[in-house]
Specification:
mainly alpha; two-stranded antiparallel ribbon; 20 helices; 2 strands; globular
Length: 457
């Protein structure tokens, strides 16, 4: 067969595939496209991690899928040690996956379009609206730019600080450089992946390293809405902070303060020492931001604190950030509904601001669906696993909230248990409501994506 004919046939095949893919995108709702996108990235990651060339030791097929899903969902739960199982190329693939998962694959695609064509298509606008619920005060173009620029700045500064900190501990130069980059990206994306087999327990009294992790995790989990809003305020593009930003900051500070105090006062496993306050803060912070690192063994926490940490993982942090969970804004909406009913108020408000019914519908649906999934999967895992109930509940909340904290049962899960946790991590990353819309093959109305107010749920 002539070479020219072969090239022509290949070109026609590529063109036909592109035409089919474009029709496939248009025919699906933004939510369905979002689910398919993360699913394809998970499969690509799984395929790459399954290549023996990237292994230090033999890794099972299901474990490779588990690690790929955990990375793309920025969870951090692992069934095998990343450092002991994969070489530096395999570790790089894992880092690439949670980098994509952290800021959203559509964010990268849209930023590339802005960089090359200076415009965003209507289809990309709808997909970004499905992935990030933005208040009306923030424009999508500015939002996308702020996400990418802020991510690069924070991860670069984090890597530099980590490098200094690791070198101070006597770590070899190349190892310190790679560990710095890996953990900086992991901390900012609240991925919870580490190259230390016991997370950061060996550094529980290293305030410098703990501070780096905390700053990166809080910056990522507060959300790009808050960062963009603060940038608007600094540049005087807006006269005041949006309602979303006020709720997120106030709620985050309150829950973090409450969590720190409870752990400090009541947790017996944290010894009385100069670092007790910082250790208490870190355990509350790692659950709220869903970063998933720990400086003390999570399995050693007392039952009351284990339950409270589960609650913090359940809530999470801010919408449109790197953190998972139910989100502070959803919790706020639920509290507002309860308050209005208890006091017999016809209007539902928070901090003196009326909350639109459309936002309440979204928040209520998310709350019911999220809680139902936790109940269902806890129920299923109690059948397949032999661990204590509180450990199973903790694992489920950690997986759906994309946290990565564990009481040590992840590696001991049965094959069915691993599959159930894989599903939980994936659903947690795409969002329970987004997954629900995609599953029912329903399109979310445009006015549900961009409602004329400055609250994002």
């Amino acid at each position: 067969m002539p070479f020219k004919k072969i090239m022509t046939d290949k070109k026609n095949i590529i063109e036909k595939f592109l035409i089919w893919y474009k029709k496939f995108q248009v025919s699906k709702s933004p939510q369905m496209n979002l689910v398919w996108g993360f699913f394809l990235y998970t499969l690509v990651g799984f395929g790459l991690l399954s290549i023996p060339l990237f292994h230090k030791t033999n890794v099972g097929i299901l474990d490779n899928l588990f690690i790929s899903t955990s990375a793309i969902s920025t969870t951090g739960l692992v069934t095998v040690s990343v450092f002991d199982s994969y070489n530096i190329f395999g570790q790089f693939i894992v880092m690439g996956l949670f980098q994509i998962g952290g800021i959203g694959y559509m964010t990268l695609t849209t930023y590339y379009l802005l960089f090359t064509t200076k415009r965003i298509t209507h289809w990309h606008n709808k997909l970004i609206g499905a992935e990030f619920t933005l208040p009306k005060t923030i424009k999508i173009k500015d939002f996308i730019k702020s996400v990418v620029i802020f991510t690069v700045i924070m991860e670069t500064l984090g890597a530099i600080c980590f490098y200094i900190a690791f070198k101070q501990t006597g770590m070899e130069t190349f190892k310190a450089l790679w560990f710095s980059i890996f953990h900086s990206v992991s901390a900012f994306c609240t991925a919870g992946f580490g190259l230390f087999n016991n997370s950061f327990e060996d550094f529980n009294d290293n305030n410098f390293i703990n501070t780096i992790i905390s700053v990166l995790a809080i910056a990522g989990s507060l959300g790009f809405i808050v960062i963009t809003d603060l940038w608007y305020r600094i540049r005087r593009k807006s006269k005041s902070l949006s309602f979303t930003t006020k709720i997120v900051i106030n709620g985050f500070i309150f829950l973090l303060f409450l969590g720190t105090c409870l752990v400090y006062i009541t947790e017996p496993s944290i010894q009385i020492s100069d670092s007790k306050l910082s250790e208490s803060f870190f355990q509350a912070m790692t659950a709220m931001t869903t970063v998933g690192f720990n400086t003390i063994p999570t399995s050693g926490l007392s039952l009351p604190i284990l339950l409270f940490v589960t609650f913090l993982m359940y809530i999470g942090a801010s919408p449109s950030g790197t953190a998972g969970g139910l989100k502070i804004t959803t919790l706020t909406a639920m509290i507002s509904v309860l308050k209005s009913r208890l006091f017999g108020q016809k209007r539902i408000s928070f901090l003196g601001r009326l909350i639109p019914f459309e936002r309440l519908y979204v928040a209520t649906s998310t709350f019911i669906l999220y809680t139902s999934i936790i109940f269902l999967f806890t129920f299923l895992l109690t059948y397949t696993e032999q661990f204590e109930f509180e450990r199973i509940l903790f694992e489920v909340a950690s997986a759906l909230g994309t946290v990565g904290l564990s009481t040590g049962i992840t590696g001991g899960l049965t094959e069915i248990g691993k599959v159930l946790v894989i599903i939980l991590m994936f659903v947690g990353r795409v969002g329970v409501l987004t997954f629900g819309f995609a599953l029912l093959k329903r399109k979310k109305e445009d006015n549900d994506v961009q409602i004329e107010d400055d609250l994002a749920v």
